[in-house]
Every structure is written in structure tokens, then in C-alpha cells.
Amino acid sequence: MNSHxxxxxxxxxxxxVCSVVLAATCAASAPSADHATYVTGSGAFxxxxxxEPLLEEGRIPRSDLVGLWQAILWADGYLPSSxxxxxxxxxxxxxxxxxQTNHGLGADGIVGAATFGFAARRLxxxxxxxxxxxxxxTLPLLRDRGGVYEVYDxxxxxxxxxxxxxxxxxxx
Length: 172
Fold this sequence. Notes:
alpha+beta, 5-stranded antiparallel sheet, 14% strand
């Protein structure tokens, strides 16, 4: 088997895992051009997410962005999939502190530019996907041509919002 076949199967498997972990209800239309409310990036992946809102327990409303951070914690083995609630709660803060400690960052439980920046170093291109290569799982994402990060669910893509919850797993 050549390496391209393995990558394709791995991306498909990761997409299936992602659809379970980050289940999103998907609109037929693409995200609007207003990127201020979407998780975005451009240029090198390592520069992505550095301008996203600060995530801190009790100070950030529920959002897809929080769900994305929780999915990163899941992909690295610090949070169970049931912990992806899109609410930055005490469990997310504790998992973040442990993650930060284990990665040589200041362990304050707050996700800011340094923490997001460290995580973004694990973003890789696996066409057509952009993937977060976690310590335990690979989290498939898609950074569209406009720079909006999207997640896959049931054959459709949904832009991740910084100001509201659209992920099905977070609507419980």
C-alpha cells in the first residue's frame, strides 16, 4: 500500500471520529464574509488562533471556540469526549492547567495567545483537511479559502463560531 492510501483512510477515520466528538448541525450555505464571529486563520498554521478571544472560566460565554479548545484537550488525552460542552467550566480549566504544565507553559488555566499558539503548532495540512495532530487522536478540521475553520458532520461542514454555540454536542 502506498502512503497516500493510508493518509486517505486515516483522514476518513479521523473525520468519522470528529463527527462524533464535534457533532455540528450544518447549514447549506457557507459562512458569511464577516470573519469577526468565526474561528479564523491565514498564512502559516502556527500563526492561527493567536487573535481569538481569551478563554477563562466564568468569563467567556458558551461558544464553538470553547468546544474547539475542549476538542483539542480531548485529542491530547486531557478531557473525555463527554467534556466537550462548549462551556469553559472548572473541568476545562483544570484540564487546561494540566495541559499547560505538561507543555511548559504558565499553568493559569486561561487560554490566550500563548496557549492557542502552542496548540496551533500541531496544525498540519492533510489535504483537503487541516488537522490538529493530538497526542492521542487527530482532530480533522478544514480551513476554508477565506480562513474560516470548519468541522465536519454527516457529510457537511460548519464554520466554528466564537460568539455562539452551533455544535450539536453542545446543545444538550
